[in-house]
Design a protein that fits this description.
The complex is a heterodimer.
Chain A (H helix, E strand, L loop, with lengths): L1 H32 L9 H24 L8 H29 L1 H8 L6 H22 L7 H25 L6 H30 L2
Helix pairs in contact in A: 1-2, 1-7, 2-3, 2-7, 3-4, 3-5, 5-6, 6-7
Chain B lengths: L1 H32 L29 E9 L10 E6 L12 E5 L5 E6 L11 E5 L7 E3 L10 E8 L3
Parallel strand pairs in B: 1-7
Antiparallel strand pairs in B: 1-4, 2-3, 2-5, 5-6
The chains are: A mainly alpha, B alpha+beta.
Chain lengths: 210, 162
């Protein structure tokens, strides 16, 4: 009875965490899907926009997996999924930029050259390069024999650049995302990233001290 | 040795005076001319189509783009100047031909052109305007709307002769 109750409580906790994550990801996407602006955008532009929203959402999943905060996942499986989602994140960013380029080439060329009249473009482009850099670093980690310490500093620094760049980029944009759900998602991404960075930093310090 | 120093000092003094009067000579006419020309805005020329025709109205209308065109220096209103206007609206993209149209300024240098409602595109609701008449230096503007619900947008040109 007691054991059964304990298992039930554990299951409830697992379901609660996953349901909360699902809500955090689905609500901003659903709100954007209801945007009146979609009526005046063609499929390529819409796909580009949603790829951007997906990229922001995946940035909430990444720190949760890296920190092992998602119940029901072993640390090993969590890291494997973290790697796969990293690849999907790169793809989402590529679709986002390519779709915008098809919609208005001069606006994207301006942004890539940091000559855009809109400051949020610069933040987005910085985050994009950081996403590519973090993926490249992950691919070359073995080949370059990067030490765990250097790896951790590099990976966390780039992750912070990605998260901060994406958040400023998203918040400054007047687009299909609904304001409240956008700010809430950005806040969650920030908190999740800050938590995992603090934890990993603490772990690194503890392992460094004798 | 002292003489040389004195000479150097004199040289600096005289040179400084010459420089100062020269600067004053440069600054004074600018002050007299007054109104400075409008510089082109970053991204203003994006999706520009040269030679857009003069139209009564772009598409179905409902939104007003207004502004003035004046001459740099004395600020005299310029009549009969062609201003091209385009934007991402409820009827089409910035790059679509139907989203472009031009209008002429009246005797007071004022232009107004009705066009479809501008909607946010690439992160903010904005219009594009160009003076490309050739008599004056070409200027591209990209004003941003304070609110995407606004029904009008203003932009002003101060043009400098080529």
């Amino acid at each position: 009875m007691n054991a059964l109750g304990g298992r039930g409580a554990k299951l409830t906790r697992i379901l609660t965490v996953w349901a909360a994550l699902a809500i955090a990801l689905v609500v901003p996407i659903a709100a954007a899907a209801a945007s009146p602006l979609l009526a005046w955008r063609d499929p390529v532009y819409i796909a580009a926009g949603f790829a951007g929203i997906a990229a922001l959402g995946l940035q909430l999943v990444q720190p949760l997996l890296a920190g092992g905060y998602l119940p029901g996942f072993s640390a090993y499986r969590g890291r494997r999924l973290h790697r796969w989602i990293g690849a999907v994140l790169v793809l989402a960013v590529v679709i986002h930029v390519a779709g915008l380029w098809l919609t208005s080439p001069p606006d994207v060329v301006d942004a890539l050259q940091f000559a855009s009249p809109t400051p949020f473009s610069n933040w987005g482009v910085i985050a994009m390069w950081a996403v590519f850099a973090v993926a490249l670093l992950a691919l070359l980690r073995r080949r370059l024999r990067i030490s765990p310490r250097v790896w951790r500093i590099g990976h966390l620094t780039l992750a912070l650049v990605i998260v901060l760049g994406s958040i400023v980029h998203a918040v400054l944009i007047e687009g299909t995302m609904e304001t409240l759900s956008k700010v809430a998602l950005c806040a969650l991404v920030l908190v999740g990233t800050a938590k995992v960075v603090a934890d990993l930093w603490g772990r690194a310090k503890r392992s460094a001290s004798p | 040795m002292t003489d040389v120093r004195l000479d150097r000092r004199r040289l600096i003094a005289v040179g400084g005076c010459a420089l100062a009067s020269g600067m004053a000579g440069l600054v004074l006419p600018v002050r007299a001319t007054g109104l400075a020309p409008t510089p082109s805005m970053a991204g203003g020329a994006n999706n520009y189509r040269p030679g857009a025709p003069i139209v009564e109205r772009i598409g179905g209308g409902g939104f007003w783009m207004t502004g003035t065109v004046r001459r740099a220096g004395d600020g005299a209103p310029l009549a009969g100047q062609r201003i091209q206007i385009w934007a991402h609206t409820t009827e089409g993209y910035e790059s679509d031909q139907r989203s472009h149209g031009a209008t002429l300024t009246d005797a007071n240098g004022v232009f107004r052109l009705e066009m479809p409602q501008i909607v946010p595109a690439f992160g903010q609701p904005h219009g594009h305007l160009a003076y490309d008449g050739g008599t004056y230096r070409t200027v591209f503007l990209r004003p941003v709307m304070p609110s995407s619900k606004d029904k009008r947008l203003e932009a002003h040109f101060v043009l400098e002769p080529v």
